[in-house]
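re: the backbone from monday

yeah here it is again, tokenized this time
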């Protein structure tokens, strides 16, 4: 078993009240909101999806093509450019996009942007993320329209999809679990949005939560995404230390190394987490029910 894609970047999915708990905050940073937001940015894997690296695009200027069974999505510009990016988005509009899947004009967003997971982020993390993005260079790169098959490109149907598959609101801690487990769940289910790739989907693109983390035979860009539950078909033979090392360096227990999209995720995201946060993810994954 060679799981190479433990958590994919933000937009590689098929469709594109409570106070935040202490364990849901990124490590404290002396430079304020933008510095904290940089850590959130890295944990959420924003760089890889919103940069057309192969096409020579500027960082966060969008344009990365994401082929899916529903058509091709093109990731948007999230630089502070006022015309093509998010420069005119208020803090309220920014939070609403993540929490409710709505653009500044009230239109529903395609869940290729994995807001069903990002909705679980704390208000503080969302505000800090926006603060960091607003410090980045503005790039006047226009967004490219998606090329989607009917009826999946019909935006007016999205509120129905959201009613079925979106439960807005931050993720609350489980008081019966230790802080390290709650932190790991937050990193996996909200920031890292691992279920978006590692959980199979129904025909409408909604997650089959009864099979959470059990792998997806029809993953993004046609790739099979592996089972990461602690079963024999998943990572049952991996120790917590094995998972931590993989998230830091990409090395698996058999000595092989991650490649492809997972190598990108490790480089841009999990390798940049603190050692404590990588361990928290390992603790959480090892606690999942084993599914074959």
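seq for it, each position gets an aa:
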């Amino acid at each position: 078993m060679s799981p190479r894609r433990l958590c994919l970047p933000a937009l590689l999915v098929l469709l594109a009240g409570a106070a935040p708990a202490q364990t849901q905050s990124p490590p404290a940073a002396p430079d304020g909101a933008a510095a904290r937001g940089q850590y959130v940015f890295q944990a959420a894997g924003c760089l890889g999806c919103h940069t057309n690296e192969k096409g020579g695009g500027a960082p966060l200027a969008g344009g990365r093509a994401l082929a899916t069974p529903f058509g091709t999505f093109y990731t948007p510009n999230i630089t502070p450019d006022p015309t093509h990016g998010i420069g005119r988005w208020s803090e309220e509009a920014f939070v609403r996009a993540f929490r409710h899947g709505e653009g500044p004009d009230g239109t529903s967003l395609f869940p290729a942007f994995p807001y069903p997971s990002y909705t679980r982020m704390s208000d503080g993390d969302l505000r800090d993320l926006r603060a960091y993005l607003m410090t980045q260079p503005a790039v006047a790169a226009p967004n490219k329209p998606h090329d989607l098959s009917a009826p999946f490109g019909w935006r007016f149907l999205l509120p129905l999809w959201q009613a079925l598959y979106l439960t807005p609101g931050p993720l609350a801690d489980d008081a019966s679990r230790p802080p390290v487990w709650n932190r790991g769940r937050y990193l996996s289910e909200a920031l890292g949005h691992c279920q978006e790739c590692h959980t199979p989907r129904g025909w409408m693109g909604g997650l089959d939560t009864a099979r959470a983390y059990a792998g997806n035979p029809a993953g993004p860009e046609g790739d099979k995404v592996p089972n990461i539950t602690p079963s024999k078909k998943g990572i049952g033979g991996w120790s917590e230390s094995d998972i931590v090392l993989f998230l830091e360096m990409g090395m698996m227990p058999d000595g092989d190394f991650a490649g492809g999209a997972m190598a990108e995720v490790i480089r841009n995201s999990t390798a940049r987490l603190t050692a404590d946060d990588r361990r928290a993810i390992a603790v959480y994954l090892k606690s999942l029910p084993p599914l074959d």
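DSSP finds eleven helices and three strands in the chain. The longest helix spans residues 179-191.
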